[in-house]
DNA sequence: CAGAATGGTTTCAATAAGCAACTCAATGAG
DNA sequence: CTCATTGAGTTGCTTATTGAAACCATTCTG
């Protein structure tokens, strides 16, 4: 794979999931989609593109086809790397709720297992201060 | 604009920034890019596509061209909606750092204004519990 | 003012995406 | 066991998006 910008983790991430469909596939996987047709019907993506994206996501280690118990078809499952996109999906969802709906337009909200609305996800410093783009910098090197 | 899936905030968000370049443009804007050529040189994007993306981001209210002090060219600036993508960029960056570099491959890290590494951003419940895709659900309606 | 740099636009070829129809293996119903 | 159904792709064709390079109009710089 030729990275757009090998030195930037954001660019590497968008190389993997920065297209019209990949994140929606991951979203649906988190929401219980397992089979090719699940994904196809939920997203409405063209089937040849879905084939391509599932392969690409598998190649990058975000999903894997696991053998199902006998008599059942094998299904797609998120790997740890795939599940680890959860914070990305949540922040995107919350951004969408705040900025992609017009004033007063109803939209869904994310709730936890106690029925409470999930508060806005914000980057925090080790001491708990909320951080912004002006209070963070990239250190290259590690 | 015809949304891919009007009912899903994630889909609306990817409709706005779910392409190869938009998030990198926003990343660079957060990192100080102001002019057309700034963006072009930092991302390496084709200029006609950059024109298109800047317009699209402006149309969606993520950036705006603001008049600069007299004798200076006008520059692009992030709006509040654009700045509000910060948590998305950070979670994407952290995901990239964890999963888009091979074992032992050096990569940059994000540090705060005290020089401390920014801890992984995770969705938290109101009571502070970390949340995952299995402990959250979407409630539609509000 | 002349030349360079900036901020685009236009054109055109290459690539990717979408759509419909087709295949082919694995279930499932009778 | 046989035939219909469903799942998981392929293939071929059409449209949309991207990219490279050339072109043009402002805006600076000296």
Automatic annotation (TrEMBL), chains A, B:
SUPFAM superfamilies: Winged helix' DNA-binding domain. Gene3D superfamilies: Winged helix-like DNA-binding domain superfamily/Winged helix DNA-binding domain. Residues 8-104 form the HTH hxlR-type domain. Keywords: DNA-binding, Transcription, Transcription regulation. Pfam families: HxlR. Coiled coil: none annotated. This is Helix-turn-helix domain-containing protein. It comes from Allokutzneria multivorans.
């Amino acid at each position: 794979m030729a990275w757009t910008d090998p030195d930037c983790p954001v660019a590497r991430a968008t190389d993997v999931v920065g297209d019209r469909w990949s994140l929606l596939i991951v979203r649906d996987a988190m929401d219980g989609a397992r089979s090719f047709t699940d994904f196809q019907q939920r997203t409405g993506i063209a089937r040849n593109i879905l084939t391509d994206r599932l392969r690409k996501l598998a190649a990058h280690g975000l999903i894997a086809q696991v053998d199902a118990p006998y008599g059942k078809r094998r299904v797609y499952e998120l790997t740890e790397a795939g599940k680890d996109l959860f914070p990305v999906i949540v922040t995107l969802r919350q951004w969408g709720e705040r900025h992609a709906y017009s004033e007063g337009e109803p939209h869904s909200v994310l709730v936890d297992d106690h029925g409470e609305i999930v508060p806005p996800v914000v980057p925090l410093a080790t001491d708990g201060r909320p951080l912004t783009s002006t209070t963070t910098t990239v250190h290259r090197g590690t």
